[in-house]
Amino acid sequence: MIFDLDGTLFQTETLLLPAYHATFDQLRSEKLYIGDTPPESTILGSLGMLLEHIWQKVMPESDVAVHRRADVLLLDYQLNGLAGGEGILYEGVAETLTALHQQGVRLFVASNGLESYVKEVVAHKSIGPLFEGLYSAGEFQTRSKVDLVRMLLETYDISSAWMVGDRSSDVEAGLKNGLTVIGCDYADFKSGGELEDAHVRIQHFSQLLELIER
């Protein structure tokens, strides 16, 4: 099974939103941004995109240098938050992953996030030993999740897998790589219709165990 991270395993807003507001406070203090912080809904609705595309949506009038400064600030605030105990997994994630691992299912993460963010979330939430590989767009410089998942499949010589995620990018990555797609329909920030093409949709992470039994 290949899992997306944000909105699938990790309840992203519990870490992201404090870091988001701190980032814009700092940008204003550095005279790099003027005005109110863009609505939380804007960045939450952008999750699943590459970071450069997120900033293009959140602050389209700012130049690329400001976007890159925002990259650094947001990551720093998030990593500091993780170290301070912020951020939570969705209910049942740790227990379900443990059960799948014990059943011999090979587990991977494929995320469009930055390398250090993905690895630190997994490490701080004590689920790292359950995964055989953590793949991120930040580490492998892929331009889409389709490419990232393809690279993972080829590297580990995987011919059959489930892609588990909450956004249209996860559905696309699974379908274009010939995988079974499980849509996670419990995150609050996806848009309507994003999971329409998933083979199965689940309302709770633990339902994966029921699907395996079938």
Give the end-to-end Cα distance, rounded to a whole number of Å.
16 Å
Rg over CA atoms, rounded to whole Å, is: 17 Å
Shape: globular
The mean pLDDT is 95
The overall number of domains is 2
Q: Which fold name corresponds to the CATH topology of the largest domain?
A: Rossmann fold
Total beta strand runs? 8
Sheet with most strands: strand arrangement: 5-4-1-6-7-8
User: CATH-wise, what's the superfamily of the largest domain?
Assistant: HAD superfamily/HAD-like
Q: Count helical runs.
A: 10
Q: Report strand %.
A: 5-15%
What is the C-level CATH assignment of the largest domain?
Alpha Beta
Structural class determined from secondary elements: alpha/beta
Order of helices and strands: EEHHHHEHEHEHHEHEEH
Label the CATH architecture of the largest domain: 3-Layer(aba) Sandwich
Which blocks of ≥5 consecutive residues have pLDDT under 50?
none
Summarize the amount of helix as a percent range. Answer: 40-55%
Largest β sheet strand count, sense and barrel closure: 6 strands, parallel
Organism: Paenibacillus foliorum
GO molecular function, one term: phosphoglycolate phosphatase activity
GO biological process, one term: DNA repair
GO cellular component, one term: cytosol
